[in-house]
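Q: Can I see a sequence and its folded structure?
A: Here is a first one.
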Amino acid sequence: MNNINIATQKYLKEKGYHQFSLKAVLFDMDGVLYDSMPNHAVSWMNVMQSHGFKMTEEEAYMHEGRTGDDTINILSKREGKNLKPEERRMIYQEKTNAFNSCPVVLPMKGSAELLQKVTGCGLFAMLVTGSGQPSLLDQLNNDFPNVFIRERMVTSFDVKKGKPHPEPYLTALEKGRLKPNEAIVIENAPLGVTAAQAAGLFTIAVNTGPLPDSILADAGANFLLPSIETLRDEWDHIFDCINTIKNTNTTQRR
């Protein structure tokens, strides 16, 4: 899992590409750019329990990447309840309020420097998140100036089906006018990895939460690292490998 050369070659063979033509890096937000998942987990647990649903902080990490509506719908159906759309919206607004009352969320350590390296390589960064938290979306330009533009963002407002469905990443490819071998994904959540894999994208999983590595590997991550700081430190080597390794057993897909 942790040999980027092997991971890259395996991806190219499986997908039938001759090589990468890297143009963009697609970033998840919570747990990748921001150390926001602890706040999300506590907010989800407290609000859902207040409405009589069983939910733990760990389960919140397992649902990470879904839209809020999907998460509430899954939990309600699991317990034999059928909430109306307006009821789900009310609960999600409560969760949003709870999240906003938590301590201020800071960027993940190493994320700003990683973005500088990515853009310094001539690539553009895109945001692909299941979140609809206005507080974090507004914070992006302050913490990462001149990196993300709205036209290249995919949030819960832009899709009908959230992760693990591939729609968020397929929408990002469409917005960025990209082919799958022209982008890679940085994810920390198993559902996000599943979505990226379903969209045919090479996926680097960064385990910034409490879940075991095996869950990210089982979701299909092509490459696994323990932190954003590690990814930042190894970025130059990873970029070089992705750019140079070729699949000599096939011709370029069209």
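Q: Show me another, different protein.
A: A second, unrelated one:
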Amino acid sequence: MGTTACRTLDIERPVVHYLPGVPDAEMTVADLIHHTSGLPRLPSTMRDRLFGDPYREAVGVPLDLTTAVPVMPPGRHVYSNLGYALLGAVLDSVHGDWFAAVRREVLEPAGIGSATLVPEPGEGVTPRLFGRAISPWALGASSFAAAGGAWSTFEDLCRSAEWALEPGADRVRTVSWQQEGASTWINGEVRAAGAVIADAAGITAVVHTLAKAPHAADSIATALIEHEHEAEE
């Protein structure tokens, strides 16, 4: 998302230039990319429930632009699904279909062919609890799909890592990633699934988890990288 926005938009323009219905006139596209807009994770109109699906009610419903009201001062990094849903709406306004733009700018160059927002019945792997399948959130079918609703094979997740971290590649490929010292990473969790791509001083770990504790993918990736660093010493 961030890479596509950087390549196809003037990211220093206010979001309201692309979406006149947004209340905040100062928020820029760059703020959405970097999660520095001050927007909450979800709008106050959506229920962030532990066991329910907060995105089910957003299926087939256009994003309500009037809910994009910052609740924190801009400039500080605070992850916002609402912000990325808004970024998807910006790309829709310019390209007609944000996912088609992402496919053209990122997925196809990276050799990723399996990515989809709504898998065909039986194609998506879901975890089970006490013998029953845990239904995934309806994120990919909702107006918040741009906030992490894509599915792919694990092989294509690895291809994404290779493309983004290719030596000498344009830094815009990792524009939305987090960085601290020599480490750079991107992660996400949806209900019973988590994924992370992490790189520390040239060692990369790609992890996907199902039915694990929160942040399990991050912990596994950290352990893998530390193990490889120790092996090199």
